[in-house]
Write a structure and sequence with these properties.
The complex is a heterodimer of chains A (111) and B (111). Chain A is mainly beta. Chain A is built from no helices and eleven strands. In chain A, the strands form two sheets. In chain A, strands 2, 4, 5, 9, 10 and 11 form a six-stranded mixed β-sheet that branches. Chain A has a five-stranded antiparallel β-sheet with strand order 1-3-8-7-6, with no helix packed on it. Chain B is mostly beta strands. Helices cover 0% and strands 52% of the residues of chain B. In chain B, the strands form two sheets. In chain B, strands 2, 4, 5, 6, 9, 10 and 11 form a seven-stranded mixed β-sheet that branches. In chain B, a hairpin with a 5-residue loop joins strand 4 and strand 5. The N and C termini of chain B lie far apart (37 Å). Classes of the chains: A mainly beta (111), B mainly beta (111). At the A-B interface, strand 4, strand 5 and strand 10 of A face strand 4, strand 5, strand 9 and strand 10 of B.
Chain lengths: 111, 111
């Protein structure tokens, strides 16, 4: 498997429901970041969690990090149609300047 | 709010031609990046740049690619002799202190 694999690949939910996306990685990391990408557009940084943190909140977003399992999850609560986008995790391998992006989860929120 | 800008938004070129993609990072940022995203695929790291030199590059960033910060403002990616498989969205990003800010991208089509 690759550094930065996400599941599910696609997720379709109703407005108001929660959406959970998972990311797994392989190497030691400094931090892990989540980004949103609307179709054909640039990436927008959502939240950063450091390797010594376990959970972080930002508005309707909740991110967890389990370094023992090399995995992270992004929870979007009370989803809205405007949350429809692709979501990517990105890791910085310890000792490098290289960001590795996951394969992404395509989220569709139905009104 | 300051943002990363990229020009052109779209570029069509013939195979074998040279292209230069331009980026203006956010002014007080010190780290700069280029990424590419082939349609429908994940974002791939190309190169990171700090203190006027390349700090890291990926396997994709071969001798056909070069980067430059010619005037303290612009950050350019040059592809010397384009191939069909170079067709992709190219994103520039700048970072401060740990968050990357992405530009809107340049869509490159090589015919």
């Amino acid at each position: 498997s690759q550094q930065g694999e996400e599941d599910p690949q696609a997720l379709s939910i109703q407005e108001g429901e929660n959406a959970t996306m998972n990311c797994s990685y392989k190497t030691s990391i400094n931090n892990l970041q989540w980004y949103r990408q609307n179709s054909g557009r640039g990436l927008v940084h959502l939240i950063l969690i450091r390797s010594n943190e376990r959970e972080k909140h930002s508005g309707r977003l909740r991110v967890t990090l389990d370094t023992s399992k090399k995995s992270s999850s992004l929870l979007i609560t009370a989803s809205r149609a405007a949350d429809t986008a692709s979501y990517f995790c990105a890791t910085v391998v310890t000792g490098t300047y290289k960001y590795i992006f996951g394969t992404g989860t395509r989220l569709k929120v139905l009104a | 709010e300051p943002e990363v800008t990229q020009t052109p938004s779209h570029q069509v070129t013939q195979m074998g031609q040279e292209v230069i993609l331009r980026c203006v990072p956010i002014s007080n940022h010190l780290y700069f990046y280029w990424y590419r995203q082939i349609l429908g695929q994940k974002v791939e790291f190309l190169v990171s740049f700090y203190n006027n030199e390349i700090s890291e590059k990926s396997e994709i960033f071969d001798d056909q690619f070069s980067v430059e910060r010619p005037d303290g403002s612009n950050f350019t990616l040059k592809i010397r002799s384009t191939k069909l498989e170079d067709s992709a969205m190219y994103f520039c990003a700048s970072k401060f202190p740990e968050t990357q800010y992405f530009g809107p991208g340049t869509r490159l089509l090589v015919l």
